[in-house]
Each structure stands twice: as structure tokens, then as C-alpha cells.
UniProtKB/TrEMBL annotation:
Domain Polymerase nucleotidyl transferase: 22-68
GO molecular function: nucleotidyltransferase activity
Alphabetical list of InterPro entries matching this protein: NT_sf, Polymerase_NTP_transf_dom
Name of protein: DNA polymerase III subunit beta
Coiled-coil ranges (or none): none
Signal peptide: none
Organism whose genome encodes this protein: Thermus scotoductus
Database matches in Gene3D superfamilies: Beta Polymerase, domain 2
One protein family per Pfam: NTP_transf_2
Amino acid sequence: MSLERALAQRAKEREALIQMARRYAERVRARLKEARVFLYGSVARGDFNLESDLDLLVVAPSLPKDPLERARLLFALREGPEEPKGLLPEEFALLEAQGKLWFLEGALEL
């Protein structure tokens, strides 16, 4: 396989994963109405492999306050390799102010 063909195949694989993440974001918004959804990690950066999951951060005011309930809700919306984490907007703002959202560098907001 030529380098050009391999790169084109890689781009197609990445786009398919991003579309899967977009569908997850749609399911989240259907359930929670208002939500920001970020794809971060290896798929967003483009250095994913066959074992990679879809690292997703959901920020929504209607997420449960209890972290276990929050995780249960977000994981129930999975249909594939999605690996969601959830924050309330005030939690997101606090972490952002503290500089602790470094992992979102290069993230795609869906």
C-alpha cells in the first residue's frame, strides 16, 4: 500500500470515529437537551490505534449531581467505544479556572 493510500485510509477511519462521537453527542442532547460535548484524546489528535476508545467530555446543567448516577446515565447512551465523562457547568468552569482541563487541548467540540 502506498503512503498516500495509507494516509487516505487513516483519514477515513478517523472520520468514521468522529461521526460515531457525533452520534453519541446527538443522543446526549436528545436526553439532556442542553449539553456541550468534547471529543478529546487520541482520536481528536489523530494518533489513535485499533484499541482506542472515544474519549468524550459532556458538560450539561441537567446531569445528575451524584457522580455515579452521572456515569450511569452517560454510559447508558453508549453504542460503541465511547468513554464518557460528565461535568456540570460550574465544575467545568472551576477546573478551567484552575488550568486542569489541559487534556482538552486539541479537542473537537461536537
